[in-house]
Specification:
Elements (H helix, E strand, L loop, with lengths): L4 H28 L5 H10 L8 E2 H17 L1 H16 L10 H14 L5 H14 L19 E2 L1 H14 L42
Antiparallel strand pairs: 1-2
Length: about 210
């Protein structure tokens, strides 16, 4: 059956409207993932996404906060080593995990740092606890949850980056520059409020991928 001119016009209009709606959704998603805080830039740098359009969960915030705290405490180069270890642990997930767990990958990376004498067990525990507290999104403060089912705790990228940025600043851990820092960072406030002062002359460390 032939399509009359009226039908063709209506179809063309519907297609135009659909295209406009799709473009609007893409623009809104892209805008929601703009990093407007230093923590937001660190978050995107660690997760390796050009845009985080939908949502963040507590596990992802936990991992990125640990990454940020390591940069504050030990410097940008050590934070980059953590990012390498974290991504390796995300890729090498156990079979029981349907989706790779950022919480597990973070804890395994911190354990590796302790075993490699990059940090002490006490320092790793402190970073883990600070990151755990900063990542909380719901009333259950005993866990960090993911994005699925009964263990779902999520927020938008815009809200998540602002929330953790504020919590870090309030605790005296204002984020230093990591992404695009060229190996240089600002002076950290990690040593405030009873926290250990930053150390730049720490014992020699192995870089990831290098032999002792």
């Amino acid at each position: 059956m032939k399509t009359n001119s009226r039908q063709r016009v209506d179809t063309a209009k519907e297609q135009q409207i659909q295209q406009q709606n799709n473009r609007r959704k893409t623009q809104q998603a892209s805008g929601s993932a703009n990093a407007t805080t230093e923590f937001g830039r660190s978050l995107k740098d660690l997760l390796g996404r050009s845009a985080i359009a939908n949502q963040l969960n507590e596990e992802e915030l936990f991992a990125a906060t640990a990454y940020q705290l390591i940069a504050n405490r030990f410097g940008v180069e050590t934070a980059k080593d953590f990012k390498s270890a974290f991504r390796l642990n995300m890729a090498d997930k156990p079979q029981r995990e349907r989706f790779a767990s950022p919480e597990r990958a973070t804890k395994e990376s911190l354990k590796f740092f302790v075993e490699s004498t990059i940090m002490t067990r006490e320092e790793a525990t402190q970073i883990r606890q600070l990151a755990f507290n900063a990542a909380q999104l719901d009333d259950n403060s005993n866990k960090v949850w993911d994005s699925w089912g009964d263990t779902r705790a999520v927020t938008s990228f815009k809200k998540g980056q602002a929330l953790v940025q504020a919590r870090l600043e309030e605790s005296g851990n204002s984020p230093v520059v990591i992404a695009g820092a060229g190996g240089k960072s600002r002076v950290s406030s990690y040593g405030s409020e009873g926290q250990p002062a930053p150390r730049t002359g720490r014992r020699s460390r192995k870089r990831l991928g290098q032999e002792a």
